[in-house]
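User: Fold this; tokens only.

Assistant: Input:
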Amino acid sequence: MRHPLEVAGILRDFLAAGGKRIRALLCVVGWHAAGGGGGGGEDRAAVLRVAASLELFVAFALIHDDIMDDSDTRRGRPAVHRALCTRLGLSPRAERLGAGGALLVGNVALIWSQELLHTAELSVQRRRAVHALYDAMLEEVMYGQYLDVMGTGPDDDVDAALQVVRYKTATATVERPLQLGAAVAGADDTTLGLCTALGLPLGEAFQIRDDLLDVFGSADGACAPGLGDLREGKRTVLLALGLRAATPAQQRRLRDLVGRADLDTQGAAEVRAILEKTGARQRTERMITSRYEQVLRVMDAAALPPAASRALRGLAVTATQYTS
């Protein structure tokens, strides 16, 4: 049966709009770290198919995330649900139908991701390992999204904020992609454990950096300060640290301002000033640095192939110091 080309076009445009491809890269790096590359062209084709499946999985997750967050843009373009809403014009149902259409486009991305995974040529044992890791990644992301959606509002619980980071981002961004690539190469439990030791701190640093950029932007101007997380009242490490260190008066202002849908630039500037005065911004930077240094220590102690080690060190810089 010939399916409508429109959905494929939307996904093609979404994937072509940019992105760091960090998950696909980590998948291939994990494969090399576990000794991949000695099995010939079929082995290489299998890991590339699994890496490509991760890109479609990310498309699914981001399209749905934009719907839940009611985001207007993604990678400098209208979010998929906003673009579909605009296409529907003045219809009174345009917003609801646009969200519904984007939901379905995201579902197709997930289906195609799984098709790529299922058609990778692997031995029975390696296929089972890869599919088990992929299923675990799906569960973790869904649970993390649930915690993110239901846990809005100013809160000084840093551990709860870190739990969201681990479930929603750390595992799916770094740990599982590394493990998936390693599993394609037939990795043992020790190598999979190394992927966890590298992946969790690096994934946490990646998300904490993202949350920091959303509020403060970047010094080089590549990322402008935003209002999204502050208006949604997202439970971030940055905000939790700010509330924990704030005076009672500062706490009242943060609780009054953060989470307001009508928060304006002046109110956001006040929130940023409080987060600076309490030292929350500086503590957040130190958390990123400490995790980056932890990753370097793990790599220094691991006997990784030179090419995999170089790639991981470069990706560690990308994940912790990116500005857009």
